[in-house]
């Protein structure tokens, strides 16, 4: 059933460039009897700095405007289907037949995807400003550049499905249905924030979205647990468990893979490979940078993470795969973050400004989709401008509302709220017993 063959190979292109990261010389034993010249050259080699190979070429394209449609096939109605062909370099597979390279979309959907990405970027820009104005404190990780992943995923699943990710989560929360106001309010620590101002940037939740998690990799097994819950309840849903290239080396990721395969769980382990984990390039932290192959016994798919249509197609395929009871998949979205790791990282010490500029100017997911919308005459330049304006105005208005929200009252009530659902308290917690718990309402009424 499985074919270990990529689309590139099928269409006669050369085999994917596999990583040759470090030259792996076998260890040489220094012998007392070895000639002086030999030992000194080995000694010299031993003290050479480790040679890191230049950045490995990536095998899928990151061209955000590589899909094709015939202008003549685009219907005049907003919600009538038409066909789009993805680039042959949109996917790379591991033990898997690729998703179809042809997908159906509508003008309405393309405009919605465009709106979503523009609004998401605008929201992140607002967070950037508020942080610099010192109104947002603590950690804050922005996803500018990675919008196609969150938007593509949402367009490929339904609200019944689950998404869980790490700390770079604002865009996912928004796509799952959280308002900009509630997200920015959360960043500002406001009472009306999505987690009542108690979570901040890394900890936001909404229906079908399980965070926003600060511990690298820790969300991955939770994502497998969400899939277990779906399977246990006989629901045909999929759980998308996102993590980064840096997180992919965590032991618990592999434990989750194992359990998911053993129990055939409907989960997509989705690595957002943005080339860096903090300031460390992927090929300096990962012995194998082909993250889609890391499931070993789990089929994998590498995806052009800058093309929202490729992301959507991959996820819709994965959802069906899961619904048919085929078990887990390991995805790798090849993407790029424009900003630093977090607000405290300028993001220019471990990569060149040219690299960032090249990605921004040639592979940008918003500019790519915009070009396609114009090429296919889905919308005119002025229509797109009005979508831009709408997104800008709507986000800006919500940000303003969030800034006007009152901060929480400095009362114990707020501190003690939402810790345990009454009746679910653990019997012992570091020497405490349930009777010692403080219930504000009880105190007040007694
Ligand atoms: C268990 C743990 N170790 C280390 C950290 C510190 N840390 C925060 S983010 C990060 C890098 C993760 O990079 P990646 O998974 O590629 O995600 P990205 O930031 O690129 O989205 C590290 C090491 C942490 N939060 N948790
Ligand atoms: Mg990363």
TrEMBL record:
<keyword id="KW-0560">Oxidoreductase</keyword>
<dbReference type="GO" id="GO:0006086">
    <property type="term" value="P:pyruvate decarboxylation to acetyl-CoA"/>
</dbReference>
<dbReference type="InterPro" id="IPR029061">
    <property type="entry name" value="THDP-binding"/>
</dbReference>
<dbReference type="InterPro" id="IPR050642">
    <property type="entry name" value="PDH_E1_Alpha_Subunit"/>
</dbReference>
<feature type="domain" description="Dehydrogenase E1 component">
    <location>
        <begin position="115"/>
        <end position="409"/>
    </location>
</feature>
<dbReference type="InterPro" id="IPR017597">
    <property type="entry name" value="Pyrv_DH_E1_asu_subgrp-y"/>
</dbReference>
<dbReference type="Pfam" id="PF00676">
    <property type="entry name" value="E1_dh"/>
</dbReference>
<keyword id="KW-0786">Thiamine pyrophosphate</keyword>
<feature type="compositionally biased region" description="Basic and acidic residues">
    <location>
        <begin position="387"/>
        <end position="403"/>
    </location>
</feature>
<dbReference type="InterPro" id="IPR001017">
    <property type="entry name" value="DH_E1"/>
</dbReference>
<feature type="region of interest" description="Disordered">
    <location>
        <begin position="387"/>
        <end position="411"/>
    </location>
</feature>
<protein>
    <recommendedName>
        <fullName>Pyruvate dehydrogenase E1 component subunit alpha</fullName>
        <ecNumber>1.2.4.1</ecNumber>
    </recommendedName>
</protein>
<comment type="function">
    <text>The pyruvate dehydrogenase complex catalyzes the overall conversion of pyruvate to acetyl-CoA and CO(2).</text>
</comment>
<dbReference type="GO" id="GO:0004739">
    <property type="term" value="F:pyruvate dehydrogenase (acetyl-transferring) activity"/>
</dbReference>
<keyword id="KW-0670">Pyruvate</keyword>
